[in-house]
Amino acid sequence: MLYYRRKILLALLEVFDGQLTAKSLQKYLFLFTRAQSVKAFDFIPYRYGCFSFQANQDLSTMEKYGYLEIDEEQNGRFIKLKQTGQYLALLDMFDRQALLDVKTEFGALSQTDLIRYTYQKYPYFATKSAIARELLTDEEMATVEKQKLTFTEPQLFSIGYEGITLETYINKLIINDVHVLCDVRKNAYSQKYGFSKSQLQKACIGVGIQYVHVPELGIESEQRHDLRSQADYDILFERYEKTTLINNHNALLKVRALIDTDKRVALTCFEKNPLQCHRSRVAKALMQLPDINYTFKPL
User: Fold this and answer.
1) Distance between CA atoms of residues 59 and 66, nearest Å
2) So what CATH class is 155-298?
3) From CA 98, how far away is CA 36, in angstroms rounded?
4) In this structure, is the dihedral angle defined by the CA atoms of residues 27, 172, 212 and 187, taken in order, positive or negative?
5) Which pTM value belongs to this model?
6) Is the Cβ–Cβ distance between 43 and 59 less than 8 Å?
7) DSSP secondary-structure letter at 82?
8) In which residue ranges of the chain is CATH 3.40.1010 found?
């Protein structure tokens, strides 16, 4: 059974005669989601502008299931429907119309003009682009540059990925000008798409953020069993402070060194609620080190 968001991707290809370049598909999908009140896909600014990791993963999954094929050709990466079907008819009436409107308004544009339009209309999504200067005027580039938030003051952040998409997560890091993401999980693996070590590292690198895994500051998964109340978490974390944090003080100093050199560092783990995540105790320990010149902000 197809997820609704995957039906959108198939319908998009269907509307565009069964074939699109990967770059064009991402741009058309982005423009389509601008018309949605609840967006089916989130996007980040990436090498060629607006990009959805989830859409990219869904396309790869549907290739495995035989719905489409992804061909690397000399003039680009092409996404092609293999199984024909009335995919547009599977969408609700508002999404059907929105896809048709995208085709009507933008279907005649070349890929280059399509990318240029998204940069002009949505300059934030051009902030990490490798080709923006080739496509935009000096005035338009100045508008893009204004979207880049930069801060000089050293700052320690903490962020959990529970309940949010990879794109929302990465956008939080970008907006706060995070330079280094410190993953303090013992095992940097997640069943949630995008948050296993290799996936998260790739996403960070793509937007100019350094990824560092510090497993020494993690908690063994078996210690997290039977946590039913905040009191259970508090007991676990008090034990963590007296053992792991003391025994791995050098790992804590490694994070401190990153703050000293790279200025803006975020600690990350799974839980949304920092009171139910050991990263809050890592942050507390870092804030208690001598001669600090940074402040703390949970994201």
Assistant:
1) 10
2) alpha beta
3) 8
4) negative
5) 0.93
6) no
7) S
8) 155-298
